[in-house]
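subagent[fold] <- orchestrator: predict structure for attached chain, return tokens only, no commentary.
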Amino acid sequence: MATILVPYHQDEQLPESSFPLPHDRKLTPGLEGDDRFARLRSLYRAVADEIAGQVRAGETPTIVSGDCLIASGVVAGVQRAGIDPVVIWLDAHGDVHTPETSTSGYLGGMALRFLLDGELGTNPMPQRDATLVDARDLDPAEEDFLATAEIRRGTVTGVPLPEGPVVLHVDVDVIDPSEVPGLLFPAPGGPSTSTVADAVRRVRSTGHVVALHIACPWEPGVGNEIRARLLAEIAG
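subagent[fold] -> orchestrator:
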């Protein structure tokens, strides 16, 4: 199983030291375009190319990145390999904002919505094919959207097990911030690292995981010894 590092937060390349997990490959493509969305799309195309090749070769890659937006490239790559996956999304936040509903304009808060709508290179995904797990820090607009959406909801201890191919996404901020130093958007009241790692193992034990994406939206260079243990436990 290959581990691929994509050391970006949005279109900003981060130091490799921010991701203390051994990896087989690092993707740092030259980003093209005059605006942020063009640059992001060029990054996700490179990620999709890599993931498609890995999946076609029978690999189940683990992708480690600096934000949740990279999931669009991961899912697009799986789709290019001829697989239509569902997504299980472990995150303290909903990530279902749009540019119109977001009060901060932070693109990471739109990552799941972009994925469902096919905004960044993926084929649009039916809402019922997404399961949002342990999203406990939601803005009113996200609450309103989720109240009528077909997105499934779950808890870390009760993650529904997939019956078909799945991209498993884990934002490390799903873990209680007392165990994760330097989170950009800490959300108290989360599960422990071991509880999240157990959930990841349960889903992977089904044999249906085609890619695991671990998003690390945290400050560079803070508590790397703790982070190394955390990433090793989640990545297995």
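orchestrator: received. Logging for downstream: DSSP finds six helices and ten strands in the chain. The beta strands are 3-6, 8-9, 12-13, 25-26, 62-65, 86-90, 130-133, 152-154, 166-171, 209-215.
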